[in-house]
Amino acid sequence: MNTRYTETFLFLSRLSRRSNKGFALGFVLCVGVLMAGTGAVMLFRSSSETEKIAAHEATAKGKTTGEVAIARMQYLLGKYPFLAEMDMDDWQNADVEAQIQEQITNSCEAQTLTPEQINTKVNSSKTEIAGYIQKSSGEYEWLEMNPSNSNEGQFRFVAFEPAIAGQQMAELTIEAKANVGNDLKEAPSRLVVTIPLNQNEAEIAEGASPGLWLQNGSGLDDIVAANVWIGSGGDDCSVTDDAAKVAEINTKVLGDKGGVQEAIKDGELTAGTTFEPPQVAEHKFPDETVLSETYAEQITDAGVTPIDITLALASDPDNNPLSTIASRVNKFVDKTFTNMLGGVALARPGRGNSNGNNGNGGGSTGGGGSTGGGGSTGGGGSTSGGGSGSCGTQVDATKNGSLNVFPRSGDTATRTQILDDGTTLCIYDYKVDKNLGSVQAAIRTVDASGNRQRVIFHLYGDIDKNTEIAHVGNDDLSGVSKIKDTPNCTGSCKPVDFQVWGHETTSACMNGNKKFHGFLWAPQADIGMMGTGNGKGGLNGVAFVKTWNQTCGSNSKSGAHVVQTGEWEDLGLETPEPTPPMTVGQPASVKTEQYYQSSSSDG
Fold this sequence. Notes:
Among the domains are: 43-91 and 132-200 and 585-593; 287-505, no CATH class. It has 8 helices and 27 strands. It has helices at residues 3-18, 20-79, 94-105, 115-130, 242-254, 259-265, 288-300, 321-341; strands at residues 135-136, 139-140, 143-144, 154-161, 170-177, 189-195, 197-199, 212-214, 224-225, 228-230, 279-280, 307-308, 374-376, 382-385, 405-406, 415-418, 424-432, 440-444, 453-459, 468-472, 498-502, 507-511, 515-530, 538-548, 562-564, 582-584, 589-593. Helix 1 packs antiparallel against helix 2 (20-79) and helix 3 (94-105) crosses helix 4 (115-130). The protein is elongated, with a radius of gyration of 39 Å. The protein starts with a helix and ends in a 10-residue tail after the last strand.
């Protein structure tokens, strides 16, 4: 027993032997002391518990402040995802301003804004970003959770490690404090959060690529057998919500839902063919900017010179005196010099012997041929400027009958492309610097040996309804006198191997009684059907156009007007950029680190 309590007990025992009164007094005093001590202990414990509760509350509030700060950063990166790939010190440079400008300019909202209003929004975005990264004495400044109420806490960014889309997460370090100005309840905390930056898939699955891709969804009420995409990267600015977008597509794009059955009945599609429901595009529409960039990459930068056939595509070449005279003079000169020089080929722009090279883009003239500078097509393999000795010969001219056929026997491939399967595809680029009005021609995309080849018209004009361009393989056309009587592109002939790139095309009219077998890339063009014919007119292949509407007049209501017979990998183009190309994901992890007071940490 405690000595002090023992002595007290003995003292009280002595008092009890002397007097009952003394014992009672001592007992009362002892009990009073015990009660006072107990009360003091309870009061001390209560104060301690109160402090613990206050500390826990402050800590929780501090952590909550940090989590709110994380949400703030999440919002900022979600709004401007390109920031996630940059150091915070670079968030105010010229490149960021340019990306903000592009993001706002490409938005639906920008369609109703003046240039001055767009600049105002750009400056507002720059100010918003700058508010997060102000520095003082080399450290990021403390920011108020609520500028009008400092009691809601403060936060600041300490460090940021940029992300690499799809590979490396961003790492953000944040400091937060709850009750500013109250050292006991401030509860500062430091949080480290990892944030993923997701690279959206650019690939287009086989069978899912568009057969008709419209930049706008107005005006179409025709029979379609194709995957229909509308808009650019999920933004159809003519409507306001997803439900309305779907309704817009089904009403003005899909049209008569019997298109697949019609195409199967007409032999354009095999039985059992199906297509996906029309959808708002998740990729960036290949607009005129993309067309220009693709032309620069595959043609200009590769040193390729398209063969100019503007004069050769006269409305009626048989009755064009200039064309006829020029043709006869050329044949006479060729024959004369061949006899004189023993078969040495004459070098002329866009011409050459069928086994050599016209020298475009770095190739060399001669029997072997060589390839020049190259580019990349993405899904279709690599391209090379210049013709190639590996290209086969064209179908004998006697099998062309009286038709105007391309490639001509004297034309040499302007470039080649190595396909994914290792085979070489010879490409013939032609320049057409006029409207295709009342033009009649036939395109062969299979050579004399049965090898696939591609023909591209680089068109700087519109397409008239009276234009008839047949697309055939290596068929014998000697008994055919009219374009409409030519066989269709079937078998080893791929419809999309004949391509028309409409660089300045704003209108394209399909003929009501004739199919256009090919790939039409005219991002500024309104396209439609003119005349009813036998209801078999329209497009068989793929089309990327501004709108499909009734700009050409009355539309036929029988047959399938758009029949998709090509996949993305058949086009020889880069896969379109998904929109947005990347997105910021939810925080993958949040951990607490020890908070270190710095010399400039006072708010």
